[in-house]
Amino acid sequence: MELERTRIEIVDCAKTYADGTRGLKPTTLTVEPGEVLALLGPSGCGKTTLLRLLAGLEAADPGGRILFGDQDVTARPVEKRNVGMVFQSYALFPQMTVEANIGYGLKVRGVAEAERRRAVGELVDLVRLNGLESKRPAELSGGQRQRVALARAVAVRPRVLLLDEPLAALDAKLKESLRDELAELLRRLGITAVHVTHDQHEAFAIADRLAVMHGGSIVQVGRAETLYRAPTHAFVADFLGRVNRLERDADALARGVVKIGGVEWSCPSRSSDGGVLVRPEDVQLGPHRPDWALATVRHRTFLGERIHLRVEADGQSSLLADVPPDSPFRVGDTVGVWVAPERLIAAMETDA
Amino acid sequence: MRATAQPPAPLLFAVTLVVALFMVVPILVSVMAGLVVNYSSGLKSGLTLRWLAQVWETYGDTVAASLLIAAGSVFATVVLGVPCAYMLARNRSRAARAFEEVLTLPVAVPGLATALALILVYGQMASFRQSFAFILVGHIVFTLPFMVRTVSAAFERGDLVALEEAARTLGASFPQRFLGVLVPAVFPAIVAGCLMVFTLSIGEFNLTWMLRTPLTRTLPVGLADSYASMRIEVGSAYTLVFLAVVLPALWALQTLAAAMQKRYGT
After folding, report:
1. Is residue A170 one of the residues assigned to a domain?
2. B166–A85 C-beta distance less than 8 A
3. Nearest to B166 among A80, A91, A138 (CB)
4. What is the tally of structural domains in chain A?
5. A44: domain range?
6. A349 lies in a domain?
7. pLDDT digits over B41-97, tens only?
8. Integer angstrom CA distances of residue A251 from A255, A315, A343
9. How far is CA A94 from CA A84, B112, B206, in A?
10. The domain containing residue B36 runs over which residues?
11. Is residue B87 part of a domain?
12. Do B168 and A105 make contact, defined as CB atoms within 8 angstroms?
């Protein structure tokens, strides 16, 4: 089943609710044809609002425009927008069988019975629900329900697919296996999709590009690696994984260095308004060498495949280091600390 | 889910038994009174169906009238109440809340007052006033809030909102999603509402007593007549008729409601 690949353009879309709260600040974003884009952020960041604007379940404030391909759909009601949507709770029709759920969109469009059966059969194969066609949603497992919801959404051959926290209702183990399956399914369908989640791993696994949102606006858009390695804002760095913050005083700032444990590291050239960030897995520990900062291990947490060491160095608050499980260091040991210069992240504070 | 192994609790059992007897004995005595020849001498006077026959002859028509009015109330409260419940569930405005209060008034205000109001307004329309439709209207006014409350609580659930949105994204028009998705999804609540409306309508007395005419009587009104004007055995036999009519109807509806819950329960 190959679906249309539609470019989505969101131009200056904002959303102010009836009670005056600003759900979304004016936002412009393009989703390329066939691309899977994740809207990632904490609750209340506006990601769901943006998704509902795309679906047509909410109307954008005057001035905003939404285009599917070269068609302006801003004024189209949800019923006529031809989107497929997977809801967080799946919203399967409880009184209908799996088959009837998947075929519902075709039925309300007046598609003939025979054609409908053929399309539903094809989708049942695609999402591997064979044998469950006449079950009701209450009789299915969480993963099966999710697949029914996806099949129902794509049955009407939508122009774009919208996924609202599609894995949030599942338990952690299942989530991990299903997110790869979902990613694979979306690639096979080739449909332009927008995926809302607060789980960065889910976004990494499923999306081609991520738009990280905070406080009603998009902070940064890019590929997962770019956002993880070169976040422009501290918020993005923090949201995508653990991060240490190295403080800089006025003097260090002026000279473009970080002072730590008796040494000075030169900072990335990119302008920064204060701190420098570093990922725990980029903090290397070893015997003390020149240029390496001197630090003391204060805390050690064994996690099985990794060890987390919290170290303290002069001039900085404590630093988390994520090291392999064969790391010999214990609490109280004096260690050398090193971070490769290209691993130092200069990021803006978020209220930009 | 039924608990399998519970420790015996004799005290609890005794209390339950006493309470159950307290409530059941009067009904049993009343049924017995309707079957004996003479209540004051009790079972010694022998059993008879004479009183039952007398009741059936004098008041038999009230059985059909009550069942038809109850069925009419159920039908009307479904047709009027379900859309109204949907509107109240989706509209959080102050006007909607005020409307809901007004709708509930006939439950709080004594039936006599409601009946009086109906008579004041429609009393001059003789053919309406003298028909069963007049009593039916009274019953609808009284039972509608029960249907609306029950069903609107179901419509308000978050998953129902999501179901409607899902149907909309799939292209369903309002009539399509209302009849095809929403009503089936709240069907158990509608059945529960019907059960309540039917029960209330069958047993309704004080409003009906005001609205009745000698030719338009329901079961409970006939019951009052017979208590007031005939032997106690006849009145008791009437109770028996009442139970014989109401219980099977209630059991049937309850079985249906349970089956619905089982089928649609999530």
Report:
1. yes
2. yes
3. A91
4. 2
5. 8-239
6. no
7. 777 777 788 788 887 877 788 888 888 999 999 999 999 999 999 999 988 888 988
8. 6, 13, 22
9. 19, 43, 41
10. 8-49
11. yes
12. no
